[in-house]
Amino acid sequence: MHRIFQEQPEILSPVFGVLGIAFPEKAAVYAIGTDVTEARPLARHIDTVLRIGPSDGEDFLLAVEAQERRDTKKESSWPYYISYLQAKYGLPVLLLVVCRDRATTKWATSPFSWGTRGWIAQMTYPLVVGPDNLPVITDPRTTAEKPAMAVFSALAHANSPHIEAILDALGRALAGMDWNAAS
Question: Distance between CA atoms of 119 and 22, rounded to whole angstroms?
């Protein structure tokens, strides 16, 4: 059923019409190679991948990317990561992007779409955390109760004017911890 498009590309216009998508009146159509096997190694690394096994549902994968600045290459690599993990493990995949500044957070929150002529073939919606939606933890008591979240807050707000207060609360909480009880 697919070869007819190679041999008789003029049927693309009525087929797209059935789908409600305009196909260009004049277009050159060429068949290109169909092998998508990568013969040479192409290094791609996801920062962290976690398999999550919730007690109340199906397992899923969480791909975590730390993003320091806008990187337009990620707009194509993130969908690749999701597709690859889905194909390899047969599990749903979520993408979590962690940022340190508002501009990167805003960019990463945008849905990234791939398609043409008003039709979207693929869209990626990252989950994004950064200074806009992570709490600024400056209370030593909260810091002592949730030290890992306090450290993450400090990392996310490293460029924030509140960093001194965050680090002060973190220092006080760490100084007051019983390190013998923790081990």
Answer: 10
Crossing angle (nearest 10°) for helices 163-175 and 147-156? 160
How many C-beta atoms surround the C-beta of residue 83 within 10 A?
13
Helix (H, G, I), strand (E, B) or coil at 173: helix
Q: What is the pTM of this model?
A: 0.74
Cα–Cα distance for residue pair 71/170, rounded to 1 Å: 31
pLDDT digits (tens, 9 = 90+) for 104-118: 999 999 899 888 877
* Residue 39: HSE in the Cβ half-sphere, 13 Å Cα cutoff: 1
Question: What phi and psi values does residue 103 have, to the nearest 5 degrees?
Answer: -65, -45
Compute the distance between CA of residue 159 and CA of residue 166 in angstroms, rounded to an integer.
11
- Phi/psi of residue 147, each to 5°? -65, -35
- Residue 62's SS3 state is strand
Q: Which residue type is seen at 118?
A: G
- Residue/partner pairs of 151-157 with CB below 8 Å, 24 or more apart: 155/100, 156/98, 156/99, 156/100, 156/129, 156/130, 156/131, 157/100, 157/131
User: Do 155 and 167 contact (CB within 8 A), yes or no?
Assistant: no
**Using an 8 Å Cβ cutoff, are 26 and 58 in contact?**
no
